[in-house]
Model the fold of this input.
Amino acid sequence: MRVIDRAAAPRSRSGPGRGLPRAPVDGLRSLLGALGTAVPALGVLVLALVVAALCLVGLGIPLVPHVSRAVRAVADRERGRLSRAGAAVVEAEPLPGGVAPSVRATARELGWAAWHGTCGLALAVGGVALPLNAVHDLAFPLYWDALPPGEITAAIGFPAAHDGREALLVSGIGLGWAVLALIAPPVLARAHAAVGRALLGPAPGADLALRVIRLTATRAAALDAHAVELRRIERSLHDGAQNHLVAVNLLVGAARRVVHRDPAAADAVLDRAQEAAEQALAELRAVVRAILPPVLDDRTLGDAVAALAANCPVPCAVVSDGPARGAASVEATACSVVAEALTNIARHSGARRAEVRIEQREGRLRVTISDDGRGGADARGGSGLDGIRRRVEAHDGVLLVSSPVGGPTAVGVSLPCGS
Done:
């Protein structure tokens, strides 16, 4: 088990903390993620145009619901990407049946696909190309004389370099590319996110109604989770500590009856009573720890998760960005999520190693548990993940599960730090 606390780890002046600025790197990473959805968005846009043309002659009407499902699938993928990068994007309602209802339900998503598959794709490609152009032109004086005559140009195709002085001029253009590579990616990434959230979020006027519905659902989930937790505690006390305490009572009564006739036998019975009392105490401590880990009282969430990882049969690394202390209920929920996920990994995944990553960004606590097991986990199949989802949603949080058959599996939780 390996624990890395990034907040406490010292950083040298030449280390990652003083290297590349974080905003351009994060912006570039976001643009690369946008490319992963822009290409499918362009594909479903072309498919929609083809089916729309076929509808003019009556052949494409049966295909419209399939196109709507394809548009929804790509849009949901982008919603998941935006939710991992910032505030959660509310999931869309299930698609209705029929041609006209499915078209109405995905009209805004199709508009997003039209923008994201064209303008968004061009902006993402341009943003990703900026650092490549900067490297190409900055290093140009080192290799320009080895290029074929028709390719001795800057990254944009001009000007041509015929001697060392002109090669240095191209290198100066590379400085401009480098400046743009530091400034443009964060701006382009924010533009992508803003348009995506505007088009993929709730329709204007529906946000309040959706919020009321969500609060009603999360309140019901919180009550259900509370009832389940009470049943678990009652079962643990009834099957564990209560049985041991009953045994203590019986043994002490037996010892009192024989203490005058056979002190040695009474002493043996009292030894058994003491063992039963110690077992009852251990059961009570286990129940208390399950309600709220005591380590959270005076230590951090990372320390509590490290204690859980140390008891996991699968080797587990814990990477923590050292988040500030949050609400006790949020930290307790995060601990329960990690405990349930590690239990699932140990029982069902067949993994050789696992990792728990804790970070706090933009007012949200993010916990990701990943493993290299066989995958195939289903968050809505009545499994332990379904219980995790209900408990997380009770805190207005989001659960994201990626578990293709064959693995790997990643369970991500995003919780508001202040709830």
Remarks:
- Residues 1-21 have pLDDT under 50 and may be disordered.
- DSSP finds twelve helices and six strands in the chain.
